[in-house]
Fold:
Amino acid sequence: MTAQDHLAILPILLPLAAGAINLILAERRWTLKAAISLGTAISLIVVGVALTQRVGVQPVIVYRVGDWAAPFGIVLVADRLSAAMVLLTAVLGTASIVFSLARSDRAGPRFHALVQFLLMGVNGAFLTGDLFNLFVFFEVMLTASYGLALHGSGILRVRAGLHYITMNLAASLLFLIGVSLIYASAGTLNMADLARHWREGALANRALYEAGGAVLGIAFLMKAGMWPLCFWLPASYSASSAPVGALFAILSKVGVYAILRIGTLFLGADVAASPSPGTPWLVVAGMATLAYGGLGALASQSLPRLASYSVLMSSGTLLAAIAIDNVSLTGAALYYLVVSALALAAFFLLVELVERGRRPGADIVAVTAEAFTTRNAETEDIGTAIPAATALLGIAFAGCAVMLAGLPPLAGFVGKFALLNALFQPGIASLTAWAMLGLLVGSGFITVIAMGRTGVQRFWASSDASVPRVRLVEFAPVVLLLALCAALTLQAGPSMRYLDQAAQDLYAPGRYLGQVLNNR
Amino acid sequence: MMELVISVAIGVLAGSGVWLLLRPRTFQVAIGLSLLSYAVNLFIFVMGRLHVGAAPVVPAGLAADPASYADPLPQALVLTAIVINFATTALLLVVLLAARGFTGTDHVDGERDR
Structure:
């Protein structure tokens, strides 16, 4: 094996090592801890770029952990989709860590270690080729996210965190039930092997298998924030601190990824005997999520809640789009996934800057930051405060609004336009297509209203003339994320081609199966 | 007979767990989640099929025959699930205590009953 063959495991190993080192180091050595954390996140970007390059040559990279062959040993599998998701995670992680350097990483203990473990769990969930390891990585990710949701403490966070943890523990139990039902009927948990059993009809008990898939789906849909299962999401996302909210933008996408992977791989629609179970329901539920997110966004009085409902709108769009089960629509949905995750992360970071000094929660962060920090006087001087903060924040806010609403010229428009364009392919029922079109355009309109209203309130009609003190390290990640959105607009062709190819790989899993099962 | 006893046990555990999970006190929720996780652990274990008197791996003095020994994989899965449940329950208890400290009540919404 050459060094390049180990590329697939680096996105898991690097944050694991960084998180472990960060746990050992004492709290007062925060410069070193932050440097390790940031360095790891940046090297994860490099690894992500290398992976996306590599899958161009070798579309399915199989990494045998422990060197046992596939159905018996544990494998990691990187294809175009997982490589792109790993890269997206690394970008969001870097932005969040840079933002936290200003002060919020000292609002509570062990921030950087938790972020690294979260990154490890998310990357693992994207790369694993095994259903039980998917559970384990989900748990790593969730356990880190429990700690991060409580980061900064305060009554709001603890109360929302309690609900968040309880809901996710219950969902994890559903995950286990689904996994064991699938194991009972197929006798394997390797995803490729399951796909082979499913395609060959070699299942001991097909009803049990499908029930297991449905129970598993509930667990993922809860993570993704599907409508009847999403009432915990706005409260806990809006209560979390800004860098954590930005990281959580990827968590709901992990749920969408799992649905997509499992839906195309081992509950795929290409079995003539039985269409993919539950897909029509998922289309309706995704549309309901989109509508609910839109109503919630209209009703939101505070910016954090608006951001959380935007997460729901993005999830609803994605769930409905991937459930319609069309390859070019899925390609467009993947592009939308990437740009909406970037825009949501930028928005979560921006919200904290705009609301600074206005929210009671922000004061709690400041107070606990002083309690935990060891460098009292100097903390105020980290980074330079930038001039004309209100104007710059306003411009960034408008950028986020344009991205989330899907207005030209930024990438949100390209994503939505690609979705609309793909909706009218042959093979999609025209009722579904028109309903989806109405909801997509309507949700964009709602976003414009909601963001426009809050923007006017915050920036133009603001009664208190206090200008928020914004430091360069806090504003830079927002600009970086929005610049990436602009870059994705300029490079829409290559990125769209890549993600379209990723969708085609998902819908033709023969190569995936062959590479995983025949890799000796 | 054994199947019946185990399914009733899983059913009772899961039913009590769901009931407690829906109760308004945080401690009831914690106990409910624990009971549910016991039910799920038993469930995973049973999914490897129930065997009576089967050797864990290979019976002494006999050639290895896959049909004669219990499936070891669900046991490994249960072990992992127990460890993870144990850790997350401990975490939940810490958050319960913190919520009790902040809100002064053990109601899940942090408000007293009206």
Summary: Chain B touches chain A at residues 21, 26, 29, 33, 36-37, 40, 43-44, 47-49, 73-74, 77, 80-81, 84, 87-89, 91-92, 95-96, 98-99, 102-103, 108-110 (CB under 8 Å).
